[in-house]
């Protein structure tokens, strides 16, 4: 059971000790393509409490990601090693988060003393192979399908992305232009 007051207190304590706090949450509805509004609201409150990023899992399918203030929220990272029956759970991705050190800055909505900021999120398409229930060789057809799946799930949350020439789907921080 998620107890928001406990999570907020933990984030606030960790933020005093760390350059950045990444929170992994087991949440959401299994097989749903879009996160619940209650999860979106909670994620934003956790970013407000001091989390740099929320890394969600449990729905077993990729859901989108979004930026909130200076934080990144990945609602569901899909599966990586799992033995599900539903075909939708075999199209997945690895999330690569690029961070950089920054001096303290002030942005319109709140001053930042965080020494880290997230520059970008890149999804690298992965297809889980039946029988071994782990990453398998990705065909061009699989890669294109998963790229489009990622782009569509991001778009559902209003997040802009582009497909890179190396095959990854990149989402840059909207704060980069302000700093």
Explain how this protein is built.
The protein has 179 residues and is α+β, with helices and mostly antiparallel strands. The chain is built from three helices and eleven strands, in the order αβαββββββββαββ. The protein has helices spanning 4-17, 37-48, 140-156, and strands spanning 22-26, 53-57, 65-68, 71-74, 91-101, 105-107, 110-112, 116-129, 134-135, 162-163, 169-172. The strands form three sheets. Strands 5, 8, 9, 10 and 11 form a five-stranded antiparallel beta sheet that branches. A four-stranded mixed beta sheet has the order 1-2-4-3, with helices on one face. Strand 10 (162-163) and strand 11 (169-172) form a beta hairpin. The longest helix is centred in the last third of the chain and has 17 residues, at 140-156. It is globular, with a radius of gyration of 17 Å. The protein starts with a helix and ends in a 7-residue tail after the last strand.
Describe how the helices and strands are arranged.
Layout: H1 4-17, E1 22-26, H2 37-48, E2 53-57, E3 65-68, E4 71-74, E5 91-101, E6 105-107, E7 110-112, E8 116-129, E9 134-135, H3 140-156, E10 162-163, E11 169-172
Parallel strand pairs: 1-2, 2-4
Antiparallel strand pairs: 3-4, 5-8, 6-7, 8-9, 8-11, 10-11
Summarize the main sheet. 5 strands, antiparallel
- The strand count comes to 11
Distance N to C terminus: 38 Å
Rg from C-alpha positions? 17 Å
Q: Residue-averaged pLDDT, rounded? A: 88
């Amino acid at each position: 059971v998620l107890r928001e007051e406990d999570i907020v207190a933990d984030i606030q304590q960790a933020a005093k000790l760390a350059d950045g706090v990444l929170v992994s949450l087991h949440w959401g509805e299994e097989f749903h393509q879009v996160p619940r509004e209650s999860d979106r609201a909670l994620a934003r409150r956790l970013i407000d409490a001091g989390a740099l990023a929320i890394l969600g899992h449990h729905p077993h399918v990729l859901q989108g990601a979004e930026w909130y203030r200076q934080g990144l929220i990945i609602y569901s990272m899909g599966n990586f090693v799992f033995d599900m029956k539903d075909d939708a759970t075999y199209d997945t991705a690895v999330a690569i988060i690029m961070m950089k050190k920054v001096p303290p800055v002030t942005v319109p909505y709140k001053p930042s003393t965080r020494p880290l900021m997230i520059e970008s999120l890149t999804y690298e398409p992965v297809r889980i192979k039946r029988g071994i229930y782990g990453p398998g060789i990705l065909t061009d057809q699989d890669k294109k399908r998963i790229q489009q799946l990622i782009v569509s799930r991001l778009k559902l949350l209003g997040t802009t992305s582009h497909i890179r020439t190396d095959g990854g789907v990149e989402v840059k921080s909207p704060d980069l232009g302000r700093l």
